[in-house]
Each structure stands twice: as C-alpha cells, then as structure tokens.
Amino acid sequence: MEQFGYYIDNEKKEAWTPEKLAANITRELNFEKNSPLFSSIKLAPIYDNEEFAKLNKSNWFISTSAIMEGILSLLTSNYKRDRIEMMNKKMFSGRDRKMVESYNDSSPLREEFLNYKDEAIKNIVFSFFQSINDLIWSKVDNSNSYLKKTIGIQALFDLLKEHLKVNKTFAPIIIERISKIDFSDNYFQASGIGKTRIRNVIFILNNFKTLEDIKQESDKTEIMRLINNKC
Predict the structure, then answer these.
(1) Cβ-based neighbours of 200, under 8 Å, separated by 6 or more
(2) Residue 41 β-bridge partners
(3) Is residue 3's pLDDT more than 50?
(4) Residue-wise pLDDT tens digits, 67-114
C-alpha cells in the first residue's frame, strides 16, 4: 500500500481519504490474528507466491482490490471525487474529511466516515466476515465455493450495503439466511453473470428482491432449485 502512496501511519486519521481508511481496514483484516481473514488477503507488492503460500494456511485468498472496493462502497459513492477534493489541502495544512461533507452521498456508512468513527466501521466489517466464516466458510470444505472468489465477495458486500441502508448495525441473520445454499453449484460461474446470480439468490433470501424481479424464467427455475435443495 505504501508503494502506491498510502502512507497511513504518517498521517492523521482525520485527514484520511475513503481509500486510505479502506486500505487500513484491509490491512488489519489481513494481519490481525483475530481477524476472520487473517493471512487470506493477497497483498501482491509485499509477497511473492512462495512467501504467500507459506503464510496462507487455508490455501485460498482474496484480492486486496475486492476487499477495498467493498469497503469503499460503504463509505462513498465516488471515492475519486472525495480524494481530489481532499487533496486540495496538504496533509498537515487542514486536510480533513469534513472537506467532502457537503456532497450528497447516501452511502450507508458515510456519516461514520465523516465523523471519524473508524472503529465502528471496522467492527461492522470484521463482524460481517466473522459471520460468513462461522456460518459458511468453516462449514464447507469446498474450495470451489464462489463465495470465496471475487464475484462472491462483491455480491456479499452488495448484501451488506443493502442491509446497512435500513440497519445501522450488522445483524448475522442476513448470513444465516443464505448459509444453506450450495455456492459451488454449476449455476454460478466466475464472471459478471455469476455475480448477478449470486446477488439475486442472496437478495431474494433476505427479502431485498422477489422472484418477480427476475426477468429470465430459466433463472427463476434455477433459483428455486437452489433454495429448495439447501444443504
């Protein structure tokens, strides 16, 4: 992260852009031993493949970008806009998150970001992945699960974002509702359509969508099959 200019440790938290806060939480997710993603986020500039394999005991990993982009979606609708605005002032000459307070942004944790509630944001993300690990990942001995791939992580963050729009705190029930679905099923695939299919299933199970919202009849049939054939 420092290679790309994220000198987090040398800057006041009040001056962090959304990207820097997301980078910091991603780093803590990877390096804190109590983290559900401990040593499972591949920070490419730091490790080569052999070194990472020694550290990563679970034999699977998530890309840094998938985690950072997911966290950013909770904080801002336009992180580039926020960064450009905040960079109008130097690091130690008044740069502050309040500089982007006037933008109309409905991201669910925007208020927490603007008011420096970094620990609350981190706790939500940690709790979210802890529930996924406890209720899904740890119970499925299957490296083919699409919830362990980028499209799955993206869809899960979409679920968290939708949940936080109406609930200011994370509730594990949203993970419990999807925990019996076989996400290694051939219906899902590692592509854009795969993400949409995962998203449709987990949104329907959490009442953020209905089957009537799905246009393709074949998709409706497959979704009902997955729901009726829960593990």
Answers:
(1) 209, 214, 219, 223
(2) 62
(3) no
(4) 999 999 999 999 999 999 999 987 667 899 999 999 999 999 999 999
CB-CB contact of 20 with 11 (8 Å):
yes
CA distances from 26 to 129, 163, 202 (A): 12, 21, 24
The encoded tokens of residue 9 equal 């440790």
pTM, to two decimals: 0.89
Residues 192, 152 contacting (CB under 8 angstroms): no
When computed from its CA atoms, the radius of gyration of the chain, rounded to whole angstroms, is 19
- Cα–Cα separations (whole angstroms), residue 142 to 52, 134, 197: 21, 15, 19
Q: Classify residue 159 by burial, with Cβ atoms within 10 Å: 0-12, 13-18, 19+.
A: buried
b/e code 131-140 from CB counts within 10 Å (16+ = b)? bbbebbbeeb
Cα 4 from chain centre: 21
Provide φ and ψ at 41, rounded to 5°: -110, 120
165 φ/ψ angles, rounded to the nearest 5 degrees = -65, -30
Statement: residue 21 has pLDDT above 50: yes
Distance of CA 34 to the CA centre of its chain: 18
223: enclosing H helix or E strand = helix 217-228
* Domain boundaries of the chain, sorted by first residue: 1-126, 136-231
